[in-house]
């Protein structure tokens, strides 16, 4: 009976490992596609991939996802490199499932919250919000902001549990704070997505840690 349970447990670990590998490769493919679009264009532009409150109202919800394939800013390749570095750190520390949850919820969730704020402002008669409601909203920065939130929360939790300040944890906290400060300094109607994505990343890590803790607690009862 015990050997049967051991075999089932081994198969379960193999499935998890295989799934994590696929998710890691998918994350790498995403970053490679972003880099390829930036380097070669591939005939894609904000008009094809970008989102906005107006496109959402028209029902073009897929733009909430495709808008994460473009880079917005003056140093796009540096952003891609930074995204790759942050992605590597999150996957190594917290796994690809956390990365994907933070990436999707951070990018899409922050956009929906920002668009809702714009919609409310338009309803209240704010002309500035009305003017930008059809501007293209795109970029990898909210995916990155969510990952910084994950690293920040993870580092703080590790230091609290260990009762000491590990240099790598301090580095992650400092880097996350610098990035958040830079986003807050340039905040606008779409810019509010960055702190929102950062907060979503923190929340994702918190949920993942609670689930992991519950699984560890339940494991002895399943033996």
Automatic annotation (TrEMBL):
It comes from the Bacteria. Coiled coil: none annotated. The chain crosses the membrane at residues 21-44, 75-92, 99-124, 136-156, 168-186, 192-208. The keyword NAD does not apply. Keywords: Membrane, Transmembrane, Transmembrane helix. This is Rhomboid family intramembrane serine protease.
